[in-house]
């Protein structure tokens, strides 16, 4: 009844407040902005100019002394380069410089462009602008186009740049990320390159002697694998997957990955500890990351924490927000690589990776038709046709469930479970049955703590009517299951804000309930709706909430959670969970 009343209250309040849906824009490759500072949304097709070339006259060609230069010409992945141009006649603000990878691409197959008025001297025919380039396993070049008619957008080719090459070339190991398998004697190493030669990892306990070698497999995907292609596809290269086995638990290993002749720099990782009730550790948790500036800020602090002993990252959905614009995956992987190559990076699926409305039969999670679209839900087309394909190929999570969608693993004194809130969770559904079995089989004498992650929250007090109804449905569908098996802590995201509950069951604080934490604060634009004041909500923040969670497992009866806010460089909320063992 209380639930019903709060729902009714919300619906009334929400309608009155006229809360709008969120616009999850995707930045262009260069993250171009409007004058007012907001990002141009690359998913809106009209934001991509079509270059209509007017042939230059013979006279103009002979008098053309314009030059375009990219410096340096040999660049690291994700490095900034300076683009300079000079000698351009009759330059206008509508002139543009576009990026081509490979350099043989047709004029309209550009990655992105910028208008020359990014440089204040553009009208005098010269200028300078810095952009960031990513190794997409080919060379690149830039081209200057003069606008000859601003009302028709007709362009004229003016100059092409030097060829830009990437350090290590197409074979360079990129986007290195580690993953746990559930066994402390194993570590999975994944990366991307442009070659399908046999991928290897050389590893060992000494930095100067990588005495062991493991070989793995490579795979790739094409635009045809998507349920529908709504954005811009780029070849993702080969995704390599090598499993290291027979490792010592809690031990530092050094490694280098690649193919013979093209090996990465040496990195290190620490294997998972033995599983047992007294094995403490600490890890990082966040959701809703992406590649906007706040995501960079989170990455900076997380890298520092990982270097200081946080052992892995638990990212519960909404990963890169590529949404069909596939260069975003390259940019996001480059962003996390400093820490995903030294600590395992565990992912769960979010609506922006999974939800689709195409009944193409291609959804790799194995669901039929267009997936899960319950009448009370907001599961729509949020992946823009990706339908989990990039996630499925780019990540290899523990093999005991359904790939990246649902799985579990033990780590020290914790049993971790990742679920997909984008797949059916009704009693009797495939996922529900798996979850029930998984929970039933936990040996609490080995892993006294149980931590669950999913994307859409079961508890939130944010006034957002559609998602609030989803939370109520989740309580109805599987709160009893989690409560019955004494899940201790549940992490959610989806809301770009932070909220922590008391130990709660059926909307009331109770000692043996579950603590729910929404930590969708890793970088995507913050939510703005106000909150209802239920008594189970203990802390919430949606004004400048950017940050992430840190969890320390002290012992079998004490766990510490902290919410770190980037802009304040401090923990703004923390809680100890205690239990009797
Ligand atoms: C900024 O300008 C763009 C284009 O004119 C517009 O679509 C957008 O709503 C503006 N954003 C803000 C915050 O005013
Ligand atoms: C780009 O130019 C700026 C100043 O013009 C300079 O400080 C910077 O080092 C240059 N960057 C590269 C990568 O050459
Ligand atoms: C620049 O504009 C002048 C005046 O309209 C014109 O004579 C000249 O041909 C133009 N040059 C180029 C390269 O378009
Ligand atoms: C640069 O020129 C373009 C095209 O005319 C325009 O849309 C944009 O607002 C201008 N940018 C600045 C910073 O003036
Ligand atoms: C630009 O194109 C429009 C439409 O075709 C035409 O009316 C106009 O004369 C053109 N302007 C110039 C400067 O060529
Ligand atoms: C909190 O609210 C719930 C539902 O409205 C109610 O059942 C419960 O008694 C309340 N708890 C406290 C401590 O006020
Ligand atoms: C568990 O850790 C907590 C917090 O550090 C501490 O207060 C408590 O004494 C510890 N319990 C045991 C049994 O070591």
Commentary on this structure:
The chain has 581 residues and is α+β, with helices and mostly antiparallel strands. The chain folds into two domains: 45-166, Immunoglobulin-like (Sandwich); 179-190 and 274-578, 4-Layer Sandwich (Purple Acid Phosphatase, chain A, domain 2). Helix content is 16%, strand content 30%. The protein has eight helices and 33 strands. The strands form seven sheets. Strands 23, 24, 25, 26, 27, 28, 29 and 30 form an eight-stranded mixed β-sheet that branches. A six-stranded mixed β-sheet has the order 22-21-20-31-32-33. α1 runs antiparallel to α8 (465-484) and α3 (293-307) packs parallel to α4. It binds 2-acetamido-2-deoxy-beta-D-glucopyranose (7 copies). One 2-acetamido-2-deoxy-beta-D-glucopyranose (NAG) is lined by residues 34, 36, 38.
List the helices and strands and how they pair.
Elements: H1 2-17, E1 52-53, H2 58-63, E2 67-71, E3 74-75, E4 79-86, E5 96-100, E6 113-115, E7 127-133, E8 141-149, E9 154-160, E10 165-166, E11 174-179, E12 187-193, E13 200-204, E14 212-215, E15 217-219, E16 238-244, E17 252-259, E18 262-263, E19 267-270, E20 281-286, H3 293-307, E21 313-316, H4 327-340, E22 345-348, H5 351-354, H6 389-394, E23 407-411, E24 414-418, H7 430-440, E25 449-453, H8 465-484, E26 489-492, E27 498-505, E28 508-509, E29 514-519, E30 537-541, E31 547-555, E32 558-565, E33 570-578
Parallel strand pairs: 1-9, 3-10, 20-21, 21-22, 24-25, 25-26, 26-29
Antiparallel strand pairs: 2-4, 4-7, 5-6, 5-8, 8-9, 11-12, 12-16, 13-14, 13-17, 15-16, 17-18, 17-19, 20-31, 23-24, 27-28, 27-29, 27-30, 31-32, 32-33
The structure holds 2-acetamido-2-deoxy-beta-D-glucopyranose (NAG) (7 copies).
Residues 2, 507-509, 535 line the site of one 2-acetamido-2-deoxy-beta-D-glucopyranose.
